[in-house]
Design a protein that fits this description.
By secondary structure, this protein is mostly helical. It has a single domain, classed as MetI-like (MetI-like fold, Orthogonal Bundle). The chain is built from ten helices and no strands.
Length: about 270
């Protein structure tokens, strides 16, 4: 199979994603000012005077806040992706390899969860239960997993009839060993690509919740929260709202491009085809 080199869009996405990852680790130390320091006299100031992106409604430096907020903005989606990936691997492997009643039950639950509008369900549950940011992360894990379970199951169904699985059964290997030692490595390319797209879904959903005032608490370094707190400053200092909004778009777009490229690279198929 011919391996094409990544195009300029993929390379740019790699660079942007790497920069965001670095900012998530060291962003709070790169911030030029204390992101919590308020200066009411300098509130809603445009870029300039030591503030490259201006200040927000409380006079806090916008650049410092978006840098310090990178970690907060990305950790939740990472947890969503990893959690959904684990659920997808476990239940997809079991359903696809064991089949029978277990497969039927798992897929009926998957179909039910897959039919639910994720954002609406999270908004309703968080609103009713008051579970906050990490409660929303937990709900998103459950709602993000069904797509992964389906993909893993489909790969396992194709793998379990291959000669190496039959040979393993002949020599007495247990189903557990066959699933997790021999079949799982062939499933991982699909799982890795799915992790990246689950990250994007988590990022957009959690940012939307914070924008609606149901995710991170007021004053936190969350990009969605910054966007909703500063949306009234578009005339005085548009960057107070545009900076976090642009970072959400950049992060989601870059990781989506990488997810599609990784899927094509590891499986030899274009996403959505074949």
């Amino acid at each position: 199979m011919t391996r094409r080199r990544p195009g300029i869009t993929v390379v740019l996405s790699m660079v942007l994603t790497s920069l965001l990852a670095v900012a998530a680790v060291v962003g709070q130390w790169l911030a030029p000012m204390d992101p919590t320091k308020q200066d009411i006299l300098a509130a809603a100031a445009p870029p300039g005077g030591g503030h490259p992106l201006g200040t927000d409604q409380l006079g806090r430096d916008v650049l410092s806040r978006v840098l310090a907020g990178t970690q907060s903005a990305l950790v939740g989606p990472v947890v969503v992706a990893i959690g959904a990936g684990i659920v997808a691997v476990v239940f997809g492997l079991l359903a696809g390899f064991r089949g029978g009643l277990l497969d039927t039950v798992v897929m009926r639950v998957v179909d039910l969860l897959y039919a639910l509008p994720s954002i609406l369900v999270v908004v309703v549950l968080v609103g009713l239960l008051g579970s906050g940011y990490w409660g929303a992360v937990g709900v998103l894990i459950l709602l993000s997993a069904p797509g992964g379970v389906r993909m893993v199951r489909s790969v396992v169904l194709a793998q379990r009839t291959l000669p190496y699985v039959e040979a393993g059964r002949v020599v007495g290997l247990s189903d557990r060993r066959l699933m997790f030692v021999h079949v799982l490595p062939n499933v991982l390319p699909t799982v890795v690509a799915g992790l990246l797209l689950d990250f994007v879904g988590g990022l957009v959903a959690l940012s939307a919740l914070s924008f609606l005032g149901m995710g991170s608490p007021p004053g936190s370094f969350d990009w969605g929260r910054m966007l909703t707190e500063n949306r009234g400053l578009l005339e005085q200092n548009a960057w107070a709202a545009l900076a976090p909004a642009l970072l959400i778009v950049i992060a989601a777009s870059s990781v989506t491009v990488l997810g599609d490229w990784v899927f094509a690279r590891l499986t030899g198929k274009e996403r959505g085809r074949g």
